[in-house]
Amino acid sequence: MFLLALGLLAVFPTARAEDGYDLWLRYRPVQPQWSAAYRRGVSELVVPPSATKTLDIVQSELSRGLGGLLGTAPPLSSQPTKEGALLFGTPRASPAIARAGLDLGRLGPEGYRIHSLTLDGHRVIVIAGNEDVGVLYGAFHFLRLLQTHQPLEHLDIASAPRIRHRILDHWDNLDRTVERGYAGESIWDWHKLPDYLDPRYIDYARACASVGINGMVPTNVNGSAVSLTTPYLRKLAALADLFRPYGLHVYLTARFSAPLEIGGLPTADPLNPAVRAWWRAKADEIYGLIPDFGGFLVKANSEGQPGPQDYSRSHADGANMLAEAVAAHGGIVMWRAFVYSQRQPDDRAKQAYEEFVPLDGKFDSNVLLQVKNGPIDFQPREPFHPIFGAMPHTPLMLEVQITKEYLGFATHLVYLGPLFEEALRSDTYARGKGSTVADVVDGSLFGYAQTGMAGVANIGSDRNWTGSHFDQANWYVFGRLAWNPALSTRDIAEEWVRMTFTNDDSFVRPVVAMMMGSREAAVDYMTPLGLHHQMARDTHYGPAPWLSGGPRADWTSVYFNRADATGIGFDRTITGSNAVAQYAPPVAARFGDIKQVPDALLLWFHHVPWDYRMSSGRTLWDDLVIHYTHGVDVVRSMRQTWESLADKIDAERYAQVSTFLQIQENEARWWRDASIAYFQSLSHRPLPAGYSAPEHDLQYYESLCFPVVPGHTPLPPTCK
Amino acid sequence: MFLLALGLLAVFPTARAEDGYDLWLRYRPVQPQWSAAYRRGVSELVVPPSATKTLDIVQSELSRGLGGLLGTAPPLSSQPTKEGALLFGTPRASPAIARAGLDLGRLGPEGYRIHSLTLDGHRVIVIAGNEDVGVLYGAFHFLRLLQTHQPLEHLDIASAPRIRHRILDHWDNLDRTVERGYAGESIWDWHKLPDYLDPRYIDYARACASVGINGMVPTNVNGSAVSLTTPYLRKLAALADLFRPYGLHVYLTARFSAPLEIGGLPTADPLNPAVRAWWRAKADEIYGLIPDFGGFLVKANSEGQPGPQDYSRSHADGANMLAEAVAAHGGIVMWRAFVYSQRQPDDRAKQAYEEFVPLDGKFDSNVLLQVKNGPIDFQPREPFHPIFGAMPHTPLMLEVQITKEYLGFATHLVYLGPLFEEALRSDTYARGKGSTVADVVDGSLFGYAQTGMAGVANIGSDRNWTGSHFDQANWYVFGRLAWNPALSTRDIAEEWVRMTFTNDDSFVRPVVAMMMGSREAAVDYMTPLGLHHQMARDTHYGPAPWLSGGPRADWTSVYFNRADATGIGFDRTITGSNAVAQYAPPVAARFGDIKQVPDALLLWFHHVPWDYRMSSGRTLWDDLVIHYTHGVDVVRSMRQTWESLADKIDAERYAQVSTFLQIQENEARWWRDASIAYFQSLSHRPLPAGYSAPEHDLQYYESLCFPVVPGHTPLPPTCK
User: Which of B133, B134, B418, B575 has the smallest set of CB atoms within 10 Å of its CB?
Assistant: First the structure.
């Protein structure tokens, strides 16, 4: 027997590399003190008699998970035969579940209950839902209990999503380049679809389902109309067939000019009957191939994309045309509010509000307006978007960016949970105090018929999916928050760490603390005190607060920082662009008053003299330098924390994270030094005592040039 | 003990996926009938006292390999203490090896001996070389013996490379797109270099060393000059440091216009002193960072690339300028002979010869001219390049394409061994009968001071490295042939199958047979009887024998097939372009005579009437249809063979190969049907009895359009 076991071991001549592919579904053995209790707690797996694809997947995932966690998977049975039986299914599929008589009334189609009870004389655990997909979500929740070392006694869990559409937006092009992608090329191998189905597609669907993500848009919002041609729809249908049992719906970006480009029509005017007929026929074709197709995501009249305004029509005209095409099939349209005119505005932050708020109530009922968390563009910190709260008759989806376009790409450890949480908990005061963005988005504030939350995916072909091990947490927290925006992102970080690395508390505590502080550190070393959009042109790689010139002012850093000899910051009060007036009066009053505005948003809303006395008692200039420096210090301490944990986890992941933290520390220092060098050239003030001068002079930082940067089409090789 | 072993097993909740990452270095346990003998044969591993990085790698690879193959790695010792000790090293590093007194005189720096002998009273095996890298090559050879179930008794192996520079050319761009790449994006993550060293780089070096590849060019011949800037040289230096202990040298492509683009000079004229000084300084900078830098690879004045002819200088002028810059450092210049003028020629096949043969003897001694196997461009079949044999005073490297640009991309199973072997064994008659291309390339015919063989890599970030499991064999066979061009590619196929899949003869025999027939099948279903370049424009995906128009005639299919109502084929005899006259007289006589030319090259050299009577007794038209059809039949039978082997190997690799063979069968049928449909529209002849008509009409095939194809920049989305 021992020889046999050794023989089996020899099948694995080198230990399986911990390359991160397994994500948070690693299912490594639980600590010994838990395994006996868990084996008693789950003594057999009762398979419902009416199999469906989804229930087969549930059984397979439970067997795989429990097999990994407990060493061996519990035996299968068709009836509960002993203490510790685990049942799963819908009352329809499983007479035993039906006999258990659980109240599933308020769970909806995706909710579940996990309940300890006595059935046929045995203490059992039941995972039940109204529909198969709820059972699947419940199974992942159940596995999470074991993965995070929770007791299995007296379980009484009920959960249902508070947001209906929980969607990953992939900014992936058909040639597998990924706009703002830092994790390798797209995982969607369109050329080989529909014939070859990469096994990775299944692991993607498992990961999504495990956190409750129920929709995905595989194509870029800036993508081509080719994805709407019949050959590509057949490819998409193959993905949809794979994803369906996981409750995952496919959507497509709809390029507004598709009727011209692939339809042979002379116009894409949304009020033109031939155009409307073309989109209806296209929708019919799609639904013929993919009956549960989710709908369209549209970026129109923004950054050069075509749209209804090309024909002097409104966004509502455009959105409603597409909405009409998919309505009969139950589809939705997600129309992005991220628009800004080709003409240069007085304040880009105001544009989306001005464009869309007047259209409130003019959208068809299956249109959702997809609004970024802040009014500019996924900055390290923004105030909440003023549209939230301002459109009571239009379902507003929240769009967040999981990929770290402005937050250091893959190599910076920045846990985005606190950023998402900050946005969701912002109080719009739309219906008085306590009208949070989350209340808007989950529909409770205005009674929206449709609700949604979208995250711009950070997923690519890199073995670890997201370019770094810690960026997996951002995929994870997005899904968990989209399911329930009220969850604590600290709790989510902790469960992710336990599932992904280890339940060793001496690792979990410092790593969760490091994650929780990481976003504020990035704000500090990049854009403290309300600064924003200070990154290099186009690539957004590295600091460039000096950036000016080019085609439009609002694509420069100086437009946003407004720094000069007198001070720094964008006056968005009544004396400036008055963007502050787009917020509800109590919010406007707070943000608009330099005495009341939080330090963290000071320079977002105010142009402030360098010697302005901050609440700290120091001058603005000194505080600015201190914030930049603090950001670097925090990263250094993150790196040191990590180094102290070397023996707690596998060498492979330890080493990659360690190298990336070193890169992050170098780049944080670069951000700090370059920013201070530039702003000091304007403020002409000395650094506070004890704060070191930038390593190089300003000219050096301005001379740095990076001709090829991931996530962006290469620039001409102009660097000498 | 059993519980312990089970516990260890539980660390692997799901069996390690056979995803192909391990290549031919899988080291799975040998069959039981071999393991006892092997354990006796290798009872301990004697580590030389003077460690070097390379010898540490040898020890680690032997321990890893033997550990996998035998279940446990043999114990290490510092002296041979028993029968079956395995020693490795150089006489310098190991007194025991020195005592063994093996004659290593004729092995050179890279050769090795593997020898059974009695040492200190024990029967031992010695792996010895003059230099560490020879020992490393010998260690991989030794492991191959066990991997392929060879006896270890009475070993007396001596091996040294017959070609000095054995190089992989990566056509990889700095943005990680890969020109003609079908295995995902580039594995070179330039953005994170030099800080982050992907562990995959080491596995790449291991794989290269295991087949004797000793050089690599990580940048595209069509690449940008950015790779020559200091930041990128530092990145390259980090790779070079990693690769050095594996005997793997890095090279760079040199964009001829770099002095203008990154040097700030007003010219790149190779006779301009400032230009020459710039290249010398650049070479000095490179060698300062990478003392063993290999040299430059240049594509000049070809397909729009800049070159010396832009300044009315010759290729020799250009090559010698670069050669001078690297000569003092021991570097070489590989100057590609794949040039054709911007003006349309009477026959593209003649151009390289006309350009370069007059320059014979005019190149510096450290220049190698890199010549493709045939005069057009890596077609499924070409005659050997007429330059081979025609430049006795200029070292000629052979360039072959491992990536399957013209051979079905990743999804077609085409083993390229026979193609390479056919090229190498072609008789140039340059010094009379028996003057093969291999004799030219290995330097034996003309006494070249430098020898080389380059393969355009098929490597990318796909988990299996090469886009398909069987394409790994093409990387493998390239390396093995570059080491020794006289090897049998059937033998190489067999050893690769045994190492990569299984030693089960009932699998090995049919799979080797399938591989050996696969290239001829591709020739048949794509371009039989000497046809060439009938692929779709630019992308080279799928058939387009009707292709005409566009910027130049020699970028069309009709230019090459010359099909009309009277017949088909390119007259390259005296009555046509007379390209045949570029060959030595006996070859020219054979190729130029329609009665003597091999059927396989008939339409390469002759325009032939449709009713021409072939050696088969059938008409050309009938034989053409029969060849196309036979190609499809062979692929079908390959697929059926594979299906019969389902239980012989792992499910993962079985499934992917199976799907790909189905794709190949569909695409072979497409090639056959489209080609027959087009040529029949000209020949107006019926298909031979029993041969089915194309599935669709010609219009259908002509209408197919693929806007996005891997390995090629996307075309505008013109498909409707």
Answer: B575
